[in-house]
Write a structure and sequence with these properties.
Structural class: alpha+beta
Mean pLDDT: 80
Strand content: 5-15%
Number of domains: 2
Largest sheet: 6 strands, mixed
Number of helices: 8
Distance between the termini: 138 Å
Order of helices and strands: EEEHEEEHHHHHHH
Radius of gyration: 32 Å
Helix content: 55-70%
Shape: rod-shaped
Low-confidence stretches: none
Strand order of the largest sheet: 2-1-3-6-5-4
Length: 274
Amino acid sequence: MNAPKTNERKPLELPPGSSLSAYDFSPGVGLRMQHRAVVQFLSDAGAIPQTASLALLESPVEQELDAGLLSGLQAWTEQGSDPLERRCGLLQLQGCRIFWGPGRAVLATPAHRQESARAALVEAIGLETQLREIEAWIEQGWLQLQSDLNPAFEFDERQLRRRTDLRDQYQSVIGKRAELVRLVPRLQFPPIYPPTLASQIGERVRERTRLVERAEFASQQLEVYERVYEQAGQRRNEFLLQRSSNQLEWIIILLLLAQIVLVLVEMLGGQGVN
């Protein structure tokens, strides 16, 4: 009797010594490893903490990987991307093969180069992650910016109730600009000679992800944000100054009226005595 056929595929076996690491990201610090576990099959690499900023799958290899495993590694990396926009970078350098995308990366390299390659890859992905977070903040803030255009040109009592929100938003813009200013020098340093595997990984990842160009675009967009909120602050100050001036004028008018009334009362009182 023939055994029933199934559609289940055999799990792809990873090279011995493969491991899965989870990294957390924090601004100004970068990516820091939080968890590391040995994995034997590619299906085991799905056990990633949901809070992790990066899942890095490492496989020490001394020879070329077969096409089936390479395809599986690429598919696993793409699972960390937006389902509507699958994108996965690929690098091949000095026997080292790298797949990377938002949230996931694969490093297949000879064991003696694994440590330096990992450090370079994590640093480069950390820079891209920081820039991507700034870009996400800019994108999410466009609708808020549109609603804040009014105070930048005309300020009134209704807008005055939002001055705390406008101030907080302006402080956030300045904070993001400060993050970007600190990030840019790390993106624009010259190539290292003679080149090493680590330096080439960093250069290629920055080049493939267009970090320098994206940082310039982000800077231009943040400049628009800053200009809008600076103008809103100027309009607020002008409005408060004008309101204070108007209040002072009314106080002077009232004092003058009161003085006129007192003079009239005195004059009427003097005529009554006569």
